[in-house]
Amino acid sequence: MAMRRHPLGTSNNLAPLLVSLGFMLTACPDEGRVDAGSTTTDSDTSSDTDDPTAESSSGNTTDDATDTTDTDATDTDATDTGSTDTDTDTDTDTDGGTCGNGVIEDGEACDTGDLGGASCQSEGFGGGGLLCTDCMLDTSLCSDCGNGMVDGMEVCDGADLGEHETCFDLNLGTSMETLSCNPDCTYNFETCSGCGDAVVNDPEQCEPASDLLDKDELDGATCMSIGFDDGLLSCSPGCTFNTDSCYNCGDAVQQGNEQCDGADFGGQTCGDFLSPSMAPFDSGSLSCVDACMIDTSNCSLCGDGVVSGAEVCEPGVLEGETCSSQGFDAGILGCNEDCSGYDTSACTDCGDGMVEGNEQCDGNDLAGQTCNGLGFVGGGTLSCANNCVFDTGMCSNEFCGDGVKNGNDQCDCGNQGANCTAAQLGNQTCMSQGFAGGALACNSPNNCQFNTSACYVCGDGAINPGEQCDGMNLGGETCVSQGFAGGGTLTCDNSCGLNTSQCVAIANPYTVCTSPNTAIPASGFGVASSINIPAGGTVTDVNVSIAALHTYVGDLSWTLTKGATSRVLINRVTNGLGNCGGDNINVTLDDQSVGGSVQAQCTVNPAIGGNRTPNAALNGFNNTSMVGNWTLQPNDLAAGDAGTFQQWCVSVTWQ
Fold first, then answer.
1. Are residues 600 and 581 in the same domain?
2. Which of 247, 272, 296 is the last residue of a domain?
3. Which residues form a coiled coil (predicted)?
4. What is the domain extent for residue 494?
5. Are residues 522 and 595 in the same domain?
6. CB distance 549 to 647 below 8 Å
7. Are residues 483 and 500 in the same domain?
8. How many CA atoms lie within 13 Å of 594's alpha carbon, on the beta-carbon side?
């Protein structure tokens, strides 16, 4: 048997439990409430301190355990006189909803067991159990324990160890042994060498079973002796009571043998319980009633024949309601498929403009009927009488299909309905009927109304006679098919004609120039210049113009490249010897030129000018695509003279 050096009494370590009990006595809802009778006081005589080493005698009537009756814990909304309880779960009408039906409705923050996802933590507390009172969130059983700060009667909270940090501070070990904090904001002595020695020393509450003890040493304490209703008390490795298996009905935490507590159902929902039809409920919310028992009265299963929870009705169970009680004249009332309301589709109300029940018609709603549909071969205008039956006074018995337009006929083309004469169509056409064109026909002999199926309008998406296109339907045409080699976007205008305003035309021949104005070094390659041709066809002829400032032009060669094809257009005039000492170039190179070869040129400024044939024929580019980059590369093959590549142009004839 372990020896206790200091009596447990009602030390500060029990105070949080007793404070929670005080909350339970004053703040629990009536169902599942612990009745404190008429002895509940409402005064604050608390003189607690946070010193966990404080001793008190079990006979001291003013110790910390009795100082937990606190005005802050009193729920002034609860009616609690003697054994008379007010059932807060009774359905009451609130603005926008019915409080107590287990369904959160307008104006409600919660309803019985449905907290809408809220918790003590979401309401700014550290822990505890959140309640629902009068469909408002009730935080009376929430606590600050768990917020990371020592508050009230807590000795620690998370990493905040309060006034003591080591086991030495509490005479339970050395200063090298660090204290920690339990989830209930009491010290955990597990790291202290004094914990586990089989002797209960203040401020220890107990000693756990070990090599020295066959079972936990609780020093005579039980769940009930420390303020719980019942349960199995044990000792944690940290020498503090483990109350996980103790329970208090009304503390909003489901423990021990409780089915529920407040809004804590141990993870269970309506779906875990069976309806009277022995199938699981599929909607609603659980409630917790007296003795912490689960109440499924707010759960529902549409189709089980019992109106429950948020259900308004069940198939065949209308709670005495009829079409008349719902504001209709007559008919048969039903229940919606989801039991959320009444099905009035078979109720009737003559004059509301909708055909219902056994009405033939209602106002302009003729239920799709016509004079012809009612057997009047001459057609006419069907209407509805005030008593919701058909009025056939304007229907005609004249024969539709006799080939003569008369009476209420729009047309009458006899039995064929087509190939009508102008007279049979009343001189009407597709265009007079608002269409762009087409062939107007008649539905005779079925009915003598116009048949506009062969009429057409611009904008119906179909290309009809006289239209080039219609909407997005271009009939396969493109800018290219319309002669615009540069492509672009072909569209359709409001008159169903092709719009080529966004198409790109490529000239033939196509000429484009660029002015690089880059330096030609005294020796070596200059900067190559490129011209991009974005669109076009196949090359049939190429001409190139070159302008450059350079002394001693006989030093230069010029090479044109397109794709895999390259041609040296000028190669060190004259005749490849490079002995032309003249200045500057302004020449057009053309295979068909009659001005002679550029290789023979060396005149006054410009030394190379006019229209000449190139060193290498440009027809080497024929039969290739003109689209892409054309690049001209200057090269100075002798040192001493430099210049500037001013401008060049390429002109492509294509097909």
1. yes
2. 247
3. none
4. 466-505
5. yes
6. no
7. yes
8. 0
| Per-residue pLDDT tens digits for 466-492 | 889 999 999 999 998 998 877 789 999
**pLDDT of 575-611, one tens digit each?**
889 899 999 999 999 999 999 999 999 998 999 999 9
Domain count, the chain: 3
Side chain identity, residue 5: R
Q: What angle do CA 451, 455, 460 make, to 5 degrees?
A: 120
Q: Could you tell me if 370 and 384 are in contact, meaning their C-beta atoms sit under 8 angstroms apart?
A: no
Helices vs. strands in the chain: H and E counts, helices first: 1, 41
Instruction: Please give the model's pTM, rounded to 2 decimal places.
Output: 0.32
Tokens of 275: 């309806």
Residue 629 pairs in a beta bridge with 532
Residues 473 and 537 in one domain: no
Of the candidates 205, 230, 247, which is a domain's last residue? 247
Looking at residue 177, its amino acid is E
Of 5, 4, 8, residue with least CA distance to 56: 8
Q: Do residue 174 and residue 237 come from a single domain? A: yes
Contacts of 190 (CB under 8 A, 6+ apart): 180, 236, 237, 238, 239
Question: Is 118 domain-assigned?
Answer: no
In the three-class reduction of DSSP (H, G, I as helix; E, B as strand; rest coil), residue 246 is classed as strand
> If you write DSSP's letter for every residue of 447-463 in order, what string do you get?
-SSEE-TTEE-TTSSS-
- Tell whether 527 and 626 lie within a shared domain: yes
- Residue 464's φ and ψ, nearest 5 degrees, are -100, 170
